[in-house]
Amino acid sequence: MLVLSSKVKYGIAALMELVSNYERGLLQTKIIADRRAIPPNYLEQLLNQLTKAGLVKALRGSKGGYQLAVPPEEITFLQVWELLEGGLEIAKNNEGRNDTLQDLYREAERAIKGVFSISLAQLFARQLEYEEQAQESLMFHI
């Protein structure tokens, strides 16, 4: 079973909050933590890691906060996953081993990586679309 770690889930959630605020200024940790239900101390660790990787910019102080350092079109879910967890590897390189199972594992790995190569901008657009459809389904027509 493929399970994403809380590190990846929270990291993506924090980045999605920054995407929603892209080019509008800084977001404080407390706001991100509250909106995305992320433990504040854990969020700080994740944001530090994302800052060191150059995906996020941090400004310290009372008026400080975080913002994306890179346009959301240039950040992929897979990139964040690999940064926070070290990557996805189903098909380990077994020297000289080339059989149908290895082929299947490589195919699965390529497919999963393909799905998760979605940019944060595309993911955010999907989220907006989803929310719009959910809102429309709640409307009553008289």
Overall description:
- The mean pLDDT is 90.
- This protein has a two-stranded antiparallel ribbon.
- It has a single domain, classed as Winged helix-like DNA-binding domain superfamily/Winged helix DNA-binding domain (Arc Repressor Mutant, subunit A), CATH 1.10.10.
- It has six helices and two strands; from the N terminus they run H-H-H-E-E-H-H-H.
Mean pLDDT: 90
Secondary-structure arrangement, i.e. CATH architecture: Orthogonal Bundle
By secondary-structure content and strand pairing, the structural class works out as mainly alpha
Low-confidence stretches: none
C-alpha-based Rg, rounded: 18 Å
Give the strand content. Answer: 5-15%
SSE string, helices as H and strands as E: HHHEEHHH
- What's the count of strands? 2
Largest sheet: 2 strands, antiparallel
- In the CATH scheme, the class would be Mainly Alpha
